[in-house]
């Protein structure tokens, strides 16, 4: 939780630093930016469609993720969860490293994500189909670290448990994963300290599971009938028989109904 907040604050700091620079395209600051962008994109002939690895880098790109809830509304009639939030992602782009001292001590660039390679993360269980990540501002650090935090509006199905209606708890899931990339290309992690890991048998495959908490620092209740009581982020690795394997990241939100009109109706009906 704290780490994603730090990432967001870092991105905001970088954005502010750039915006506070002299508003003069002829200033040394902007000259260094132009020189660096020319080196990164033109001289090196950067290809955003190719995984950014080099001979001396890790061949599997580790993509750390975290989800930050801003708003969540459970729609019982449709059996859906509407969510606003940010999906924070971090990875290392080995083709985008530079020496700050060679570019006026320039240590970061703020770029549109469409200019960079990105993992093909989608929302697997969106009711609108497989939602891809939208373009957004990214922060690129001189050591190749990329922070990409797109804002999301999601509608996902929620399998409601009505056995204790109108009380009881409801659990809803949001499933993220790579559309085409497998374990030989990327590894999905979480931007938080791991609390536990479990390995379970699922069909013919073995599933590796790690559990973390989602970020509620910026959460604003979208429906006063429901209170969030728990969140988890789970990474799953699916081994059908052999390598490579595939992963997904599941964000689970647990909600508990507060006193509501539905509860009053249920009480009146039982009395009548």
From TrEMBL:
Range of residues in the leader sequence: 1-19
CDD domains membership: LGIC_ECD_cation
SUPFAM superfamilies linked to this entry: Nicotinic receptor ligand binding domain-like
Span of domain Neurotransmitter-gated ion-channel ligand-binding: 35-258
Example of a GO MF term: extracellular ligand-gated monoatomic ion channel activity
InterPro entries (alphabetical): Neur_chan_lig-bd (IPR006202), Neur_chan_lig-bd_sf (IPR036734), Neur_channel (IPR006201)
GO-annotated cellular components: membrane
Keywords: Signal
Domain of life: Eukaryota
PANTHER family named in the record: NEUROTRANSMITTER GATED ION CHANNEL
The protein, known as: Neurotransmitter-gated ion-channel ligand-binding domain-containing protein
Lineage, top ranks: Eukaryota, Metazoa, Ecdysozoa, Arthropoda, Crustacea
